[in-house]
Amino acid sequence: MSDQTVEAFAAMKPGQPLQPFSFKFDPLGSDEVEVKVESCGICHSDLSMLDNEWGASTYPLVPGHEVIGKIVATGEHVRHLKVGQRVGVGWIAGSCMTCHTCMSGQHHLCSSSAQTIVGRHGGFADRVRCGAEWAIPLPEGVDPATAGPLFCGGITVFGPIAAFDVKPTDRVGVVGIGGLGHMAVKFLNKWGCEVTAFTSTAAKHDEALAMGAHHAVSSQDRKALNKLAGSLDFILVTVNVSLDWDAYIKALAPQGRLHFVGAVLEPLAVPVFSLLGGQRSISASPLGSPATVASMLSFCARHDIKPQAEFFAMQDVNDALEHLRAGKARYRIVLQA
To answer: In this predicted model, what pLDDT tens digit does every residue of 1-57 receive, in sequence order?
Structure first.
């Protein structure tokens, strides 16, 4: 397949609209797979990379790391996947598979991992490649049309629920009801938790309740936050802006955890005494391992969980990106090939 031209959409410089772009792959690696793209979700991380917010972008940049498609080629060492199999590909495109972290099953924390759109061409294209360990088969019961966002936004919020042993009896807060937060609400409701949704958008209160939250609170209402003091076992922060973190810490029960999956760029202003008294914790995490992704997909199939998505044609990618920048997405955008 490597001699075929890949048709994609790329930004040539930061802040520029995407334009048609063609390239050719190098020879397929022995442990890689090549996937024909059927759809690709758009994540806020795509905007961050397009704008080079993190200083990790190279141009031409082909974004897209929430890919659903069928395998069209496998490397000679790939045995567990077959041509024609439908898989998803997320933010991570490969891990070394030999370090202690990988051998412990924590591939997503591998210091040598490759990211799908960092120094590589992503899924706003007709084909994409990844290490075979990161091409996760879609089980029966998961809708391929809406599954793309599960491979970044979905696993980002599902990962800490599994990793930090969130219990069905726990009272959990979700800060930010957007692309990540709305999936967190759906997961936690089916997990059995009592869910409080925090959002600065009043119109989203009813929507959050309809998605499974038991309570909806303004994320900027200090009085409402004060009323929750000492009540929440786990708070999942999905926003990328600074808030009154001390108020959220005080909303935690003893031994509660404030956990970040949103890429807040400013340093956290946190009084240590707010942590000491109740033995509270602050943590953060990226994504999840391939095994955790597979568990999430099985959970979604069992409970009929799917992201709420809007659809655009791949050639309308710039309209879709502007829709996301304007904050109009409800709640994920999927490009259809």
So the answer is: 456 899 999 999 998 999 999 999 999 999 999 999 999 999 999 999 999 999 999
pLDDT in tens, 139-169: 999 999 999 999 999 999 999 999 999 999 9
Domains in the chain: boundaries: 5-152+288-336, 154-284
Distance CA 187, CA 182 (A): 9
How would you classify the pairing of strands 332-336 and 232-237?
Answer: unpaired
What burial letters (b/e) apply to 5-36, b meaning 16+ CB within 10 Å? ebebbbbeeeeeebeebeeebeebbebbbbbb
117 versus 221: the higher-pLDDT residue is 117
| 154-284 is classed CATH 3.40.50.720 | yes
Instruction: Tell me which fold the domain 5-152+288-336 belongs to.
Output: Quinone Oxidoreductase; Chain A, domain 1 (3.90.180)
